[in-house]
Amino acid sequence: MPDMKLELQVNGRKVTRRADPGQRLLDFLRDELNLTGTKEGCGAGECGTCSVFVDGKLVKSCLMPAAKAQGADIQTVEGLARPGDLDVIQKAFHKTGASQCGYCIPGMVMAATSILREAPEASLDEIKERMGGNICRCTGYSKIIEAVALARDVVTGRASPAALDPETVGDSFIGHNVRRLDAPSKVTGRLKYAGDMVMPDMLHMAVLRSPHAHAEILSIDTSEAEAMDGVACVITADDVPGKDGFGVFVHDQPIMARGKVRHVGEAVAAVAAEDVATARRALKKIKVEYRELPGLYDPEDALQPGAPVIHDYAPDNVVKHIPIRKGDIEAGFAAADLILEDEFTTQQVEHAYLEPEAGLAYVDADDVVTVISPSQNITHHRHMLSEIIARPINKVRFIMSPVGGGFGGKEDMIYQGMLALAAMKTYRPVRLVFTREESIIASAKRHPSRVKYRMGLTKEGRITAIKFDMLSDGGAYGMSSEGVMRKAAILSCGPYEVENLQVDTTAVYTNNTPSGAFRTFGGMQAQFATESMIDIAAERLGLDPFEIRRRNMMRAGSLTHTQQKLDSASIGRVLAAAEAASRWEPGAPRMRGPERGDLGGPGTRAPCTLGARFEASKDGKERVA
Amino acid sequence: MQRKMRGRGVAASWYGIARTATVDRAGAWAELDDGGTAKVVTGVTEIGEGILTVLAQIAAEELGIRPEDVTIGDNDTARSPEAAHAGATRQTYMIGNSVALACREAKSRLFAEIAAHWEVDAGTLVAFDGALKAHGTNLAMTMAEAVDIAKKRGVVPVGAGHFTAHGTGLNPVDGSGAPWQAYVFGTQVAEVEVDTLTGEVQVLGLWAAHDVGRVINPRGVEGQIEGGVVQGLGQALMEDYRTEQGHTTTHGFAKYILPTALDVPEITSVLVEDPDPLSPLGAKGIGEPALVPTAPAIMNAIHDAIGVRIKSLPATPEKVLAAIAEKEARDAAREAAE
């Protein structure tokens, strides 16, 4: 491999290293200098987690070849404050609770630093604009922006440095704004996520993924890859010693494709090698013979007679159907003055946690197979892996590393099994870090949904009956589909007491990217439909949307859709709280925006006018700013 | 129609706390340690929601010490009791209550020793912020001294706790059952501006009122609401994972569009407390529920602004423009007919 001598300044210290000229500055900082505060979120310059200063200019280090940093002065998040200390911006992030998972935070801190250096008097709008290149998936940005504004005010003397101090506690720590204990390690980049961890003698894994949505695997030839220098092992489904199969509900997914592939991006084989580049090169030497099969890409098609079967155990392609029945919907609709029918759809949604999947596995001195990863369910993963690798449960250990965003997406054991198998095969530590593209094609998404809705109401706005039918694309594997359908069904008709209802939720297999757990677990898809229907009903009946909700809401003693008696129901209180806080002007939802008197007041921001901006100049003419 | 139209919409929601339609369980260990500090051991760790800080607050409150005195050992199936998974809006409820119960046991061991040492009734002891007192007396010491005394009397103040949430399975025919023992409710109001020339929707204000049972950390709850709202906004207006014949066409953040700081409305969180009567803490949860009403509130606001209903998420500019064109055609046809 060609290399060059690289001389540069990093955080005020001279650094001289031999480096691969093709290496990205990001890799040089992380792998050569172990400055892992600089994170990789996307590898494409789109998320900002890898931001560093190069000669004082904020740069996304995933886009810059290390060779171009020859002679440059680099500053990373580790160089902002003295070790063990926090600078003003870091203190402000700590104070406001700006860090959640923390993975985007070093990049955010760097972007904020750049603002205070270049535009110390920046307005809130300018702060937002300058932070616009950094993605955060946890915080909704609000507390980050608050932190930057606070730091700005302290730096410019508008606020006292005491504004950064913790709030004093009264007579209880419950209900008190205790600052996050993990914030200092997150705002300084000190916290090690799985992809930041290294062990002596560690191997690096790369995964061969299916290019087909549905295909039979006729043969896999790994011999050429295995013979390569630097390759420690290649694993396939044949290396699984126990009962292969994982899933949150049904264990229908093998560690690596077994006999056939069911979605594009499914793991087929994996290589563990001395470095990532070698592992990736070895993937190209693995020969897989496929025979393509007819695929299913629409959940309606999956239910047609004669549709291709994705899993033999489910010849009807149904992952799960959940029925809920209460009362008599025929009688309910007969009693209605108004019957509404409509259809609602929601899309597949990517979790987009900033930390791509990563893990590290090893076999310890007591022969315990240990996997460190940002798993959201180490308990269940331990159970499943124990069966898959046929080892007693006390010989399987899962350690949950700091999770750089999960939202349900890290409940599926989609890579930990491969790491365990490679560690068992080599008796060396093995690390795998997904690329963003890999994360997107291999991990579960929010279930898309189609809801057919029928709602009957009296002219006073009381719901008399609901018929609710949801069909969801579960994708290639079951993952959390069963639970998502269950929760969607239970919550379907919203916080309202409905005497007569018929609810069905169904998830089916297709050859699309699997759907799985995602924050609300089916609750938002179902209630999007219900809350839209209620608004339509209010419009038709001339009722205020708060009022129609109050007329139907659950109360203490109400029976839920699953006929559970509630001891209390706070829906009346939250309706009143939102109505008061938003200064809601009552009225039926009949496009009254143009006449409303409650718009644009406290609690709103000015519209963003980014793009071509026009400024009125002194002569009265507008010009592009 | 003017180019920029504004409107408001509301949506309500409900949600169950902890695992669905099953018995949920979690365990934790606690030890009052030297120096008046504490170790708390639990099987989960932070996924960003702030659970470690919440657990430290709970432990501090229960033990009478400070949150920064609490060391949390977490996240390891070989070293910590089972806490099960980090999801289902169950962390504060399941792990928080387990930690509270473990701490109560540890504290009762310590208090028994100090009560004997002071020759007072253990029920008179109160501890807060590192200081221990016997109510109605002048007796006082630091928690550091208290732990030292307990150990000199031969007792290590340890405790274990577990918490159960009694959900029941659903009847397979009619779905009847009691899937959760604790429910939360929420309501959000969105104010939007629709650019009828470009189809772009901006959410300018969002008011989010949520029952969380009991607030442990107000900023933490707000952070969960703000994050949930912005994820809901992303799903409402821009995010769309797409595949063609099973191949994704949105394989990176250039194609898969996420909300940035510029998309975020001003968010006003209103925290409502309807304490859970079935658990020691009374707290419920907020992680997932915060997201539920956001998209329908925004869609209802779009309707209020321009009179079209977007029933298929996301409400991209293309979809909004198509809906406006359809409405205009419909209105024109109606006028022609009249």
Automatic annotation (TrEMBL), chain A:
Family membership: Belongs to the xanthine dehydrogenase family.
GO molecular function: 2 iron, 2 sulfur cluster binding; iron ion binding; oxidoreductase activity
Biased composition (Basic and acidic residues): 615-625
2Fe-2S ferredoxin-type domain segment(s): 4-80
Protein name per the record: 2Fe-2S iron-sulfur cluster protein
Pfam family, one: Fer2_2
Domain of life: Bacteria
Gene3D superfamilies: 3.10.20.30, [2Fe-2S]-binding domain, Aldehyde oxidase/xanthine dehydrogenase, a/b hammerhead, Aldehyde oxidase/xanthine dehydrogenase, molybdopterin binding domain
Keyword vocabulary terms for this entry: 2Fe-2S, Iron, Iron-sulfur, Metal-binding, Oxidoreductase
Stretches the record annotates as Disordered: 582-625
Organism, as annotated: Rhodovulum marinum
Automatic annotation (TrEMBL), chain B:
One Gene Ontology molecular-function label: iron ion binding
Record SUPFAM superfamilies: Molybdenum cofactor-binding domain
All copies of domain Aldehyde oxidase/xanthine dehydrogenase second molybdopterin binding, residue ranges: 4-265
Protein name stated in the entry: Purine hydroxylase beta subunit apoprotein
Gene3D superfamilies cross-referenced by the UniProt entry: Aldehyde oxidase/xanthine dehydrogenase, molybdopterin binding domain (3.30.365.10)
